[in-house]
Design goal:
The complex is a heterodimer of chains A (930) and B (195). Chain A is an alpha/beta fold. Chain A contains 32 helices and 31 strands. Helices cover 27% and strands 14% of the residues of chain B. In chain B, the strands form 3 sheets. In chain B, strands 1-6 form a two-stranded antiparallel sheet. In chain B, strands 2-3 form a two-stranded antiparallel ribbon. A two-stranded antiparallel ribbon of chain B has the order 4-5. By secondary structure, chain B is an alpha+beta fold. The chains are: A alpha/beta (930), B alpha+beta (195).
């Protein structure tokens, strides 16, 4: 039987092959020519089939009548261009976006599969609600009615602060702005998003140093660097397409690439120098570099004299960080400290790049400042090839941060002061007193809300909180909950909520870990099914054109927001100035966001840049000719007026302000007497430091009272901005960058041991802070948490990070079958020596236990990437826990392809002293064989 | 006439998998079949290198030589293609190929052998150009559209080059020349440090 089957099938394939008549070794076209010739010779009829083939061969397109739509990748902040080919309303394939000036057609695996955001079978298809423990489809009307009724009911009983709103870095600027505006109109500051656990310490530390908290140069500008210093960044996995500019500097400028990381990452593989550092000791190392630079006389004396404040006070602190002291703390050999300092001093300008490895610590806001001071000492600021190039994470986390979906500020970093509220009420054209009336009491307008890092404390009630109401409802809009440390506590809180609304294209893990009935999922379309602007890590604003209409029964962000706002009854005020979505929102947010110069980038200008990608020079990102002549790609903010070209490099005094130059911002007064030394210093820049064409040839304060009673930030007529630029001056003044941040607990960055340290002997010398009550409404432990005995039972350092195939909580990427195939399961990286010592072999299941008692069970990957004191976990997984699968708890058929234990279950307690950033990079754990 | 070639610059490849997914997504290649993959050597150690590998479209392709049913053929531009309708799925080509390029659909017990699948250099197959049949069996035919292969076009760092071998060689030569003298020049360590 079997024999005859084989014979049959092989016979069939020989027949169907028709090899006798074809010459398979010839190319298709030659064959056609040849067959025509043979036909003529032999007189064999030219069949209709062959004619048909000939016609098809002349055809030049696979999809006749298709159109190409330009948009921007929705994964990371590099902001790669995408050319989507759309045929009959269907996105049929991705073309190569060769003209895009940043990505030049490049994609990583995620971007190459961007189309899956729309076509993945795992997309949510209808609104859903859990009824009696089962996911049930409901209509949009029912969903919005029920959600709205419950919210209004809670508002009535417990006040607006019973709602926490987790917004998103994955939505457009316009939507991010609406998220923040929604919270304001609802009457709460309980609104936050992923930036809290991403670069909040960067924004706080960097903005407090020189004015703005964003990346100073651009990805393309790295092409001009003479050396590159990466600390806590794995760009090869997190920003793969940016690597082409990084490798350009390496190849063409012969620039050394120094990679400082606890892991020998894929980036380290491309580096020239690798420095292995103990997690959480970055301040010590960088202050050590600064000390080495100064003791060897390599500092930029003129730059420091004219543009830096608090230098002497900083030098005094840095002097404690001798190479030997640094070696003791960081594990980096003393000679290496001096050698790295020497490389950076001899290859200027050097650029400093950091990511989550430099931010997610209890002293994150000191680390980020240490990095800035290093660049100030070397005189690398405001220069092409230099700068602090802080790579952001999500595609629009820069924009969402700028729009301040943050519990401590209104859009554009205006803060929560009365002045800020009045400013935005003017922009929104609503009555300030009405706005006050939305809050439980006026004082709550000015007080920070809960953060994304610790909102769940407001639900659990286990620690002391200071809020008018516990949290009873949550809207989770484009945000995966497994990014939170102490994830088991998050799960507990999610199950205690009276209402949970998940708005996402894919069901996030929150839908599966909750067992309660009051959970709704609203299927939101992806960003390819809507339009709006998006800000890349380089501060460039790009336009996402809509590729296709929302698929299935999903709605785009704007539609969902409108339904919700209408139901909640403040639509007339909320949409007062918004008729056309999203363009009117772009204009409205721009008209108010004067601090960061979002006002010059009108929808028309942004779209013009998208349509003319090819006219921008990839070396300096300036359009050379064409419709955008002279403008910088994406008009990097601040873009002060609708004629301004954008600011490609922050604090660059070699260009006039009208051409994209700027000095350091005057933000911290005119004069300061330092606590440490008693010295009084003028905070303005020295004589002789000014942008070409400036009326004042030295430092000057910020502009105010051009229109009486206003300053450059609050003058909605924008006269102040225009006058400043006409006089060749920066609206925000011309000041010094400061090494001493007197409003921070540590005025000059100093090392403090992580709360959970593997070196208890260092605690007396480098102790953590005193406990902090009411830190973003939550009592936060420092000193009482730092125990010298912990390391005995939990001896290994746990650190987390990215893999290139997945992004964030992984709800999107794990729902892409190809990405899931490339990186299908959760694992832990363990050094061979440690593995042998504790009896673990490749592929064994191991249990990781945190000091908080949480456990995960994951597969061991034995690798030298980590050292024998540290283990590494990728943080993208969710969907199982300790052998139990939650697959059945997702809505039918929508569970991601790849599931795994969430790393953040075992990341430790620990939060930044300034921003409440979670410390996920330097905890402790116990590792045992399962 | 031009001969089509791939070249992967190992100094640039960062193992991001862009080429792998570009290929799979563009041609709807089933999970388990990898026309292209990235190989990493010495992972986590100094000297770690990654390279993207697929069918190399050999000038004198061993797969063509061993195929018992002559299912594999070479176009005049050097692209090596397979006729899936002719292929008997024997796997000889897989044994002959120095790069492990030929792929076979995976199955359950004993594996399921079907027609061989491999990189087409985005040039489809012997069926009618742009026909449904060609698309289903081989994916897009970008060469007929005058477009480069997806993997190289979408390479994040321009490590993977594809096209006319002469042009590819020129691009690579210029790149090596730009790397200049000094530690970053390709082969420098081998020549002078004898590592």
């Amino acid at each position: 039987m079997a024999r005859s089957k084989i014979r049959k099938s092989s016979g069939a394939s020989v027949v169907s092959g028709q090899r006798v008549t074809l010459n398979p070794k010839l190319a298709r076209r030659s064959f056609l020519k040849l067959s025509a010739a043979t036909a003529a010779l032999t007189g064999a009829a030219m069949t209709t089939k062959l004619t048909g083939k000939a016609v098809a061969a002349e055809k030049k397109e696979a999809y006749i009548g298709s159109k190409k739509v330009r948009t921007i990748c929705t994964y990371c902040s590099v902001g790669c261009g995408i050319e989507a080919e759309v045929h009959n309303g269907v996105w049929v394939r991705q073309e190569i976006a060769q003209d895009h000036p940043v990505s030049l057609g490049g994609h990583c695996c995620k971007g190459a599969g961007a189309i899956d955001m729309v076509v993945s079978e795992k997309r949510l298809k209808t609104p859903m609600k859990r009824v009696n423990g089962k996911w049930t489809s409901i209509s949009w009307d029912t969903a919005i009615d029920e959600i709205g009724a419950k919210l209004l009911d809670l508002r009535e009983k417990d006040g607006p602060d019973s709602l926490h709103f987790n917004g998103s870095a994955k939505v457009s600027n316009e939507m991010a702005y609406l998220h923040r505006k929604f919270a304001a109109f609802w009457g709460t500051n309980n609104v936050d998003h992923q930036a809290r656990i991403c670069h909040s310490t960067t924004v706080a530390g960097v903005a407090n140093t020189w004015g703005y908290g964003a990346m100073t140069n651009s990805l393309n500008d790295i092409r001009h660097a003479k050396s590159l210093f990466f600390i806590g960044s794995n760009a090869a996995e997190a920003h793969p397409v940016g690597m082409q500019h990084i490798l350009h500097a390496k190849e063409v400028n012969n620039a050394p690439i120094i990679v400082v990381d606890p892991r020998f990452t894929k980036l380290a593989a491309k580096g020239t120098d690798y420095v292995r550092i103990r997690p959480g000791t970055d301040v010590s190392f960088v202050m050590g570099l600064i000390n080495a630079i100064i003791t060897n006389g390599w500092e930029d004396k003129e730059f420091i004299r004219t543009r830096v404040a608090g230098y002497e006070e900083m030098v005094k602190v840095a002097s404690h960080y001798t190479p030997e002291a640094v070696e003791d703390v960081t594990g980096i050999p003393a000679a290496e400290v001096t050698r790295v300092a020497h490389i950076m001093a001899n290859n200027r300008p050097s650029t400093v790049i950091w990511c989550m490895g430099g931010t997610q610590h209890s002293i994150g806001s000191s680390m980020t400042r240490a990095f800035c001071i290093l660049q100030l000492v070397l005189g690398n600021m405001g220069k092409s090839g230099g700068g602090t190039n802080i790579f952001r994470g999500h595609d629009n986390v820069q924009g969402a941060t700028d729009m301040c979906i943050l519990s401590h500020s209104l859009p554009a970093y205006y803060g929560l002061s009365d002045g800020a509220w009045k400013h935005w009420c003017r922009v929104w054209d609503v009555d300030y007193d009405w706005m006050v009336g939305r809050f439980p009491a006026k004082e709550w307008m000015n007080k920070k809300g809960f953060t994304l890092a610790r909102w769940y404390e407001g639900v659990l009630g286990e620690v002391e909180i200071e809020s008018p109401s516990p949290i009873k409802a949550m809207i989770q809009w484009g945000c995966g909950s497994n990014s939170n440390s102490q994830y088991n506590r998050v799960v507990k809180a999610l199950n205690m909520l009276e209402l949970l609304v998940i708005v996402d294209p894919f069901p996030t893990i929150a839908s599966a870990v909750t067992k309660t009935d009051n959970v709704y999922i609203l299927p939101c379309s992806s960003q390819y099914e809507t339009s709006g602007s998006v800000t890349s890590t380089s501060r460039q604003i790009q336009w996402r054109y809509k590729v296709v209409d929302p698929v299935y029964d999903s709605k785009d962000d704007y539609q969902i927001m409108e339904l919700l706002v209408k139901k909640l009854g403040f639509a007339d005020k909320f949409y007062k100035k918004i008729k056309q979505v999203p363009e009117d929102i772009t204009l409205e947010l721009g008209s108010g966001s004067l601090t960061i110069g979002y006002n010059g980038q009108t929808p028309e200008r942004i779209k013009k840049h998208m349509d003319n990608w090819h006219t921008f020079d990839i070396d300096d990102l300036q359009a050379k000719g064409g419709p955008c002549d002279g403008e910088y790609f994406g008009m990097p903010w601040p873009c002060w007026t609708t004629e301004h070209p954008g600011t490609p490099i922050l604090y660059d005094v070699s260009k006039s302000v009208a051409d994209g130059g700027l000095p350091f911002r005057n933000r911290f007064g005119l004069e300061k007497t330092y606590d440490a030394s008693g010295r009084t210093e003028n905070q303005l820049a020295a004589e002789g430091v000014y942008n070409p064409g400036s009326e004042v040839k030295g430092g000057y304060p910020e502009f105010k009272d051009v229109v009486p009673g206003t300053n450059w930030k609050t003058d909605l007529t924008q006269k102040t901005l225009k006058e400043a630029i006409a006089r060749g001056m920066a609206p925000f003044g011309n000041a010094r960058a400061r090494c001493v941040v007197w409003n921070f607990p540590d005025q000059v960055p100093i090392h403090r041991e992580p709360l959970h340290t593997p070196r208890p002997d260092l605690i007396p010398k480098y102790p953590t802070y005193e406990d902090k009550p009411n830190h973003y409404r939550v009592h936060t432990r420092y000193k009482s948490e730092q125990s010298p005995d912990l390391a005995k039972e939990y001896p290994y350092v746990i650190t987390t990070g990215r893999v290139v195939e997945h992004m964030g909580g992984g709800a999107e990427t794990r729902s892409n079958k190809y990405l899931a195939e490339l990186q299908p399961e959760m694992y832990v990286e363990i050094n061979p020596r440690l593995a042998n010592n504790i009896g673990i072999r490749k592929g064994d299941m191991v249990i990781i236990e945190s000091p908080e008692g949480a456990k995960i069970k994951v597969k061991a990957k034995i690798t030298k990437r980590v050292d024998d004191k540290t283990i590494f976990l990728p943080f993208h997984f969710a969907g199982t826990l300790m052998g139990e699968s939650y697959e059945k708890d997702y809505p039918d058929g929508s569970a991601p392809y790849a599931l795994g234990d969430p790393a953040n279950t075992v990341t430790n307690y620990g939060y930044d002293i300034v921003t409440q950033m979670q410390a996920t990079k330097d905890g402790l754990c116990k590792v045992t064989r399962a | 006439m031009a001969r089509m070639k791939f070249l992967c610059d190992v100094e640039r490849c960062i193992d991001c998998g862009g080429c792998v997914v570009a290929c799979k997504e563009g041609h709807h290649v089933p999970v388990g079949v990898n026309r292209r993959r990235v190989i990493t050597l010495k992972e986590g150690e100094p000297g770690e290198k990654s390279i993207s590998v697929s069918c190399m479209h050999c000038a004198d392709a061993p797969c063509i030589a061993v195929c018992p049913v002559d299912a594999i053929y070479q176009r005049a531009d050097g692209i090596v293609l397979v006729s899936k309708k002719t292929c008997i799925g024997c796997g000889y080509c897989f044994m002959a190929c120095p790069f492990g390029a030929p792929q076979f659909p995976s199955g359950n017990v004993f594996g399921r052998r079907g027609a061989m699948d491999k990189c087409t250099f985005c040039a489809g197959g012997p069926e009618e150009t742009f026909s449904k049949e060609e698309k289903n069996l081989y994916g897009q035919n970008r060469i007929a559209e005058g477009k480069p292969p997806l993997c190289a076009g979408m390479c994040a760092t321009k490590a993977l080059l594809a096209g006319d071998a002469d042009v590819v060689a020129d691009v690579y030569r210029e790149r090596v020349f730009q790397r200049g003298s000094g530690v970053n020049a390709w082969g420098w360590n081998k020549a002078y440090k004898k590592k």
